[in-house]
Automatic annotation (TrEMBL):
It comes from the Eukaryota. It comes from Emiliania huxleyi (Coccolithophore). Residues 204-233 form the RanBP2-type domain. InterPro entries: Znf_RanBP2, Znf_RanBP2_sf. GO terms for molecular function: zinc ion binding. The keyword 4Fe-4S does not apply. Gene3D superfamilies: 3.10.330.10, Zn-finger domain of Sec23/24. This is RanBP2-type domain-containing protein. PROSITE patterns: ZF_RANBP2_1, ZF_RANBP2_2. The keyword Zinc-finger applies. Keywords: Metal-binding, Zinc, Zinc-finger.
């Protein structure tokens, strides 16, 4: 938040300077001091990456995050997020509370921050959990563009991840079922092209008959409600298998 030309910590920031709460703030992003730029340039040989991706780790858990904003160091210190150690100044990142919780970071504990580089995904397939997602998407004039904008707000995903996208205030859960280029590996998403699969096809699809139990299923359903067999075209595209 900016008031009177100055910077104020986002609403929900604790006095400790490391807990940042913004309801439904997805994807994970952090706020860091400008001095990081100088320090990173030294570490990386004077050249900064075009896209800055950070890895937060704590014990056996880790998550990739982006940078929401660089702010003046004095603002971080005023929020209680600065400190020092024998080697010199210690920078602090303001991290969303839910990210710290997912990492298992307890009060008073620290997470390791490192700069990482991930392969960029060129294509991703998403499978919505419910038919409501396709209905919400279909109300937009350009569903594909809207979905691309939503997914590109995420820093990185892996096959098997479940992400949440918000459309008109309603949150929808979607599974990441495939990534092109590096299947099963974690990939960066900016600039990714989407194959929305069942999400878009269900906008103008017709009821379909299950090839196993012959039950007639509604257009938006990706798998049979009786036996969980996937819709024929989805099974052909994704290599078969059951689904919900």
């Amino acid at each position: 938040d900016r008031q009177g030309g100055g910077w104020r910590p986002p609403r929900g920031l604790s006095s400790g300077g490391v807990l940042w709460t913004r309801l439904g703030a997805l994807p994970p992003q952090v706020v860091v001091p400008r001095s990081w730029l100088r320090a990173l340039a030294l570490v990386l040989g004077g050249e900064l990456p075009r896209t800055l991706l950070l890895r937060l780790s704590h014990r056996e858990s880790a998550v990739c995050v982006g940078v929401d904003e660089f702010v003046e160091d004095a603002s971080i210190a005023a929020a209680g997020g600065g400190g020092s150690f024998d080697g010199g100044a210690l920078a602090a990142a303001l991290v969303p509370r839910w990210v710290l919780t997912s990492l298992g970071v307890a009060a008073g504990e620290e997470a390791l921050v490192s700069v990482v580089a991930l392969p960029r995904a060129t294509w991703v397939r998403l499978q919505p959990h419910t038919d409501a997602f396709a209905a919400s998407l279909g109300r937009d004039a350009d569903p594909r563009q809207l979905l691309t904008q939503l997914i590109n707000r995420f820093v990185a995903v892996s096959v098997g991840d479940t992400i949440q996208l918000a459309i008109d205030g309603q949150r929808h859960a979607l599974d990441v079922t495939a990534l092109r280029g590096t299947p099963g590996e974690r990939c960066g998403l900016p600039g990714t092209m989407l194959d929305v699969g069942a999400a878009l096809r269900s906008l103008d699809a017709k009821p379909w008959a299950c090839g196993v139990c012959t039950l007639i299923n509604p257009p938006g359903r990706a798998s049979c409600s009786a036996c969980s067999t996937r819709r024929p075209e989805d099974a052909a595209a994704g290599g078969g298998g059951g689904g919900g």
